[in-house]
Structures are given as structure tokens and as C-alpha cells.
Specification:
Layout (H helix, E strand, L loop, with lengths): L3 E5 L2 E5 L1 E4 L12 H6 L3 H4 L5 H4 L20 E6 L4 E6 L8 E7 L4 E6 L4 E7 L5 H4 L4 E8 L2 E13 L1
Parallel strand pairs: 5-9, 6-10
Antiparallel strand pairs: 1-2, 3-4, 4-5, 6-7, 7-8, 9-10
Length: 163
């Protein structure tokens, strides 16, 4: 499978890595030694019933820690490895004006959504090992609401890296 093309607002660019909150990651990808160490351990995924379940998103935070902004089946994360652009595609209507910025934690692989009123939400999924090298190079993330594969609205947010 080669890289696909995506069109957003009449702009075509190659999509290299795809992660769906509900499905398995799909991409042609050759792991380097750095990425190999981030690959899930066999003993951790041994209890899973299928290969698809071995790559399903984990729980982003412990219960009671932070509320989730999205459920794991409500979003898709795309990263363009050439341009370092990251996108969160979703179908849920949200108030884009209320969001201030996002914080990516390199230790826990989670993204926090910081609201302008000071509330902090967990994005709802961990950034998986297939897209992690590309997501960590992004300086901003675009949230894009879609319906039937067509963009409806969206907004760019700064991404702060917490190391």
C-alpha cells in the first residue's frame, strides 16, 4: 500500500500515516530501531484475541483523572510525515472558540485539550507508535469536523510539547 492523497479545502497533500480510534493503524511503514523499541511488547498483547485488538487505543488516563474530550471511536488522527501536519477528524460538534491549545506528553503519549476557561480534558486516545514520530514533530493540530467524508468546519490549535 502506498501513500494516499487527501484533499482538504481544495488542497491535495500526501497522507502517509493513518490512525483510527476505532480501527487498526494502516500505512506502509518500515520500522527503524528507535520505532521498534516503541512497538508493543508481545507479552502485553498476548492476552488480546486478535492482531487488530493488539493495536487498539489504550485508556488515555486512569478513571477519575480527566474527562475525555472524545470517545476513542469518535476521532481519526492523521499525520503527514512530509509536512509535519497533524489532523484530528471527528463528527462531533464542538465549540472551537472554547479551546485554547493542546499539550502532548512525550512520557505518557497523551494529548490534553486545554480550554480557555482553564478546564483540561484528555483527548481520549493515546498517540500510537506508528504515528508518534510524526506527531511529535507537529507544532499545531487541526481539528476538522466531517460528515460523510466531507469537511464541515475546523480550526488550528497550537501544540505544546511536554517533555
Amino acid at each position: 500500500m502506498g501513500a494516499a492523497n487527501a484533499m482538504i479545502h481544495n488542497r491535495v497533500f500526501p497522507i502517509s500515516i493513518y490512525f483510527s480510534g476505532a480501527n487498526t493503524p494502516t500505512a506502509e511503514h518500515h520500522m527503524s530501531s528507535d520505532e521498534q523499541k516503541d512497538k508493543p511488547d508481545k507479552d502485553k498483547s498476548a492476552g488480546k484475541k486478535s492482531a487488530k485488538q493488539a493495536f487498539s487505543p489504550g485508556k488515555a488516563k486512569a478513571p477519575g483523572d480527566k474527562p475525555a474530550f472524545f470517545m476513542e471511536d469518535e476521532l481519526d488522527i492523521f499525520c503527514n510525515k512530509m509536512t509535519h501536519e497533524s489532523f484530528v477528524f471527528h463528527g462531533k460538534e464542538i465549540d472551537y472558540r472554547a479551546i485554547d491549545h493542546l499539550i502532548y506528553d512525550h512520557d505518557t503519549y497523551t494529548v490534553d485539550v486545554v480550554m480557555k476557561n482553564g478546564d483540561v480534558y484528555d483527548l481520549g486516545v493515546k498517540i500510537q507508535w506508528l504515528i508518534r514520530p510524526y506527531f511529535t514533530k507537529s507544532d499545531e493540530v487541526q481539528f476538522m469536523r466531517t460528515r460523510d467524508g466531507e469537511p464541515i468546519d475546523g480550526h488550528f490549535y497550537p501544540l505544546i510539547h511536554k517533555k
